[in-house]
Amino acid sequence: MRTVTDLPHKVTEDEHVPVPLPDGTTLAARIWRPEDSEQHPVPAVLEFIPYRKRDFTAPRDAIHHPYLAGHGYAAVRVDLRGSGESEGVLTDEYLEQELRDGEDVLAWLAEQPWCDGYAGMMGISWGGFNALQLAARRPPQLKAIATVCSTDDRYADDVHYMGGCLLGDNLSWASTMFAYNSCPPDPQLVGEQWRSMWLQRLEGSGLWLDEWLRHQTRDGYWRHGSICEDYSDVECAVLAVSGWADGYSNSVFRLMENLSSPRKGLVGPWSHKYPHLGQPGPAIGFLQELVRWWDRWLKGADNDVMDGPMVHTWMQDSVPPSTAYEQRPGRWVGEPSWPSPRIRTTEFPLGINRIGGPGEQPPEGTLRVESPLSVGQYAGKWCSYNAPPDLPYDQREEDGGSMVFDTDVLDERYEILGAPYVDLRVEVDRPVAMVAARLSDVFPDGRATRVTYGLLNLTHRDGHDRPRPLPVGEPFTVRVPLNACAQAFPPGHRIRLSLSTSYWPLAWPPPEPVNLVVHNADSCLTLPVRPPDPAGESGSGGRSPFQEPEGTPPPPRTRLRPGKERWQVSRDLVDYQSALEVVGDQGVVRFEDIDLELTKGSWERFSWVGDDFTSPRGETEWHIGFRRDGWDASTTTRTALTCDEENFHVHAELDAYERGERVFSRNWQRTIPRNCV
Q1: Which residues are paired to 312 by β-bridges?
Q2: How far apart are CA 349 and CA 177, in angstroms?
Q3: Is residue 512 within 8 Å of 432, Cβ to Cβ?
Q4: For residue 583, what are the β-bridge partners?
Q5: pLDDT at 387 over 90
Q6: Residues ≥6 apart with Cβ < 8 Å to 462
Q7: 3-class DSSP assignment, residue 171
Q8: Which of 243, 398, 508, 634 is a plausible cystine mate for 625, CB 3.0–4.6 Å?
Q9: Can you tell me the distance from the alpha carbon of 414 to that of 416, in angstroms, rounded to the nearest whole number?
Q10: Is residue 551 part of a domain?
Q11: Residues 105-117: pLDDT tens digits?
């Protein structure tokens, strides 16, 4: 990324600005704006997240917020209530209180002498979520948003559940916020009240995993904040962005299809990252795109930001399987609208371990599979956070415990763009069962790279709000949607569909092993086939519609202790214990400009024994520490999730230390009934 220091406007930074709320709570803001903005007011762009503006996100914030300010905007980074230096306690994600706070912050911004009354919102992940949710509330100041790696559907397409299946990332994410919520404010900014604010958080934030496990279906808890309940609520302009290695790519296409407000979609090869920091590459000049977006919708500029395709996507070329990529080969392609009139939805019948051609009549038969718990240990993360190696590895071992269907060897290049799905006529021998469907690119030598996948809890066959036990031994029909993708399959390769009855630890397995019978003649795979590029299409011929990435310089940091990343699969062939261990130690970093040493690290272990479906166990541990002069505060959090056939069991621990002495300790023990999961 090119570092930019010569910007159109000189920038002033206010590191810690109190934002008063009507209930008396004060939030903490960091604001970058043009030096002359009090004489010449500018629009504000808000990023509203709980990730600590002074340390956790400071390096990232310094790259894009001063850049936007240097192009004529007040870039405002506010910590949510109960996070960073903001007062209060954060007790869950996207609560009504958070959204009211967001509306109050926008109103406060519009009243500042350096703001012209217009505002936008931007954010990745949490900040992308609440940007969408606040857009649906239509505050008068909010004219446009840029939502990155977010979702319109908090139940069906988020970190908690997928297809009605409980995700392993639900535990990981709950454990992350368990640790983050335990962190103290910085006394250098809030003074002596830091300790009382810290103890208030430790006492009041709670165990979010408990709450999320008590909502196993699509109920009112998840419908709150899911703008898919009524897309017409959103009237402002929406720029929706994600990456194929991220968990949130599907929402870009739903937003393009269902919103009626001005909108643009962008999906690159990236993981859970802003596109100007995108990995795997290529990264793009996303900040330049943002400036053009805000110029159009906050300043009324007559520019070309809405010209060209509605959706730009990175068409990925074939690559060998790997758990990490620096670059993904491919090209940018554009679609004029979504659904695109150019995409042909094509049905492929399933034969006996074979994907037939369109219109082919396969022989009737049945196939059976009862997958071992080991299927899924090479699945990678539900959402790649670019903490390699967290992408799926060679699928051949996974396929050994799956039902597999292959096409004939392709005699020409084949491209798909959109969301595949599988229609299945099935029978099961247990009342609770799941299906994991994977689509892979199979090389001539047999290597298999996963292209996309989908999960379905079969008890949710009639809807995620009304699960029902399955009719044992009776056939029924289901549709398994797969994540949207853009993939080119070269000549000489094959396309593979793999079906399994477990996918642990990406998803929690059903209570018992399941024998699944598939009636192949009544089942089919549907692919969104994209024809060859028309002449002059944006992105064809090796041309990119985007500039190279650039941004302002991050703050100076010194690494005092290196971090360590490890993903390790282990199996003991004596007692059949297996595990996936994930180490995310970020070491110790010194922030030179604020004289702060930050220690941060996580450990996860997902284990199981043989094919005992009550043996899966997820364990996490986090340690976060802050040190400056005489200030030394740290926390350690631990969470364990286990199950039996009827219940989930949670045990969690939180310990907080000041100068090495424990000042707070609490344990949680919870049992939550399983509801057809």
Answers
A1: 266, 334
A2: 44
A3: yes
A4: 566, 603
A5: no
A6: 468
A7: helix
A8: 634
A9: 7
A10: no
A11: 999 999 999 999 9
Task: Looking at the structure, tell me whether residues 331 and 360 fall in a common domain.
Answer: no
> For residue 191, with 0-12 CB atoms within 10 Å meaning exposed, 13-18 middle and 19 or more buried, which class applies?
exposed
In degrees to the nearest 10, what's the CA dihedral of 388, 393, 397, 398?
A: 90
Cα angle: 11, vertex 16, 22; to 5 degrees? 115
CA distance 44 to 114: 9
The phi and psi torsions of 189 (rounded to 5 degrees) equal -105, -35
Question: What's the rounded Cα separation, in Å, for the pair 276 and 32?
Answer: 19
Q: pLDDT band at 540, cuts 50/70/90?
A: very low
154 vs 141: CA distance, rounded Å: 25
> β-pairing, 263-268 with 311-316?
parallel
446: left (phi over 0), alpha (psi -120 to 50) or beta: left
Same-domain status, 330 and 357? no
If DSSP codes are grouped into helix, strand and coil, which group holds residue 259?
coil
* 243 and 348 belong to one structural domain: no
How far apart (Å, rounded) are the C-alpha atoms in residues 554 and 557? Answer: 9
Phi, psi of 24 (to 5 degrees): 95, -10
Task: Read off the tokens for 337.
Answer: 């609208």
Count of C-beta atoms within a 10 Å radius of residue 612: 12
In three-state secondary structure terms, 179 is helix
Q: Are residues 512 and 574 in the same domain?
A: no
In contact, 517 and 367? CB cutoff 8 Å = yes
The overall average pLDDT reported for the chain is 96
In one-letter notation, the amino acid at residue 638 is R
Same domain, residue pair 350 and 307: no
Q: What angle do CA 539, 544, 550 make, to 5 degrees?
A: 150
pLDDT digits (tens, 9 = 90+) for 613-659: 999 999 999 999 999 999 999 999 999 999 999 999 999 999 999 99
Using CA atoms, how far apart are residues 567 and 640, in angstroms rounded to an integer? 19
Residues 379 and 298 both lie in one domain: no
The sign of the torsion formed by the CA atoms of 222, 224, 227, 230 equals positive
Nearest to 13 by CA among 66, 90, 53: 66
In angstroms, rounded to a whole number, what is the distance separating the alpha carbons of residues 165 and 117?
44
pLDDT digits 0-9 by tens, 456-512: 999 999 999 999 999 999 999 999 999 999 999 999 999 999 999 999 999 999 999
C-alpha to C-alpha distance for 648 and 585, rounded to whole angstroms: 28
Q: Is the pLDDT of residue 541 over 70?
A: no
Q: Same structural domain for residues 496 and 611?
A: no
Whole domain around residue 404: which residue ranges? 344-529
Strand order in the sheet with 434-442: 403-406, 494-500, 434-442, 448-457
Q: Are 636 and 621 in contact, with CB atoms under 8 Å apart?
A: yes
Give me the number of domains the chain comprises. Answer: 3
CA–CA distance, 78 with 20 (Å, rounded to integer): 12
Write down how long the chain is.
677
Which residue in the block uniquely carries the two structure tokens 């990023």?
Answer: 47
pLDDT, tens digit, for every residue of 406-436?
A: 999 999 999 999 999 999 999 999 999 999 9
User: SS in 3 state form for 262-287?
Assistant: CEEEEEECCCCCCHHHCCCECCCCHH
Q: Please tell me the distance from the alpha carbon of residue 399 to that of residue 421, in angstroms, as a whole number.
A: 19
Cβ atoms 152, 133 nearer than 8 A: no
Work out the angle at residue 361's Cα, subtended by the Cα atoms of residues 494 and 428, and round it to the nearest 5 degrees.
Answer: 80
Q: Distances from the Cα of 300 to the Cαs of 43, 142, 147, 304, 555, in angstroms?
A: 11, 14, 20, 12, 33
Kindly report the backbone phi and psi dihedral angles of residue 6, in degrees, each rounded to the nearest multiple of 5, phi listed first.
-95, 95
CATH number at residue 413: 2.60.120.260
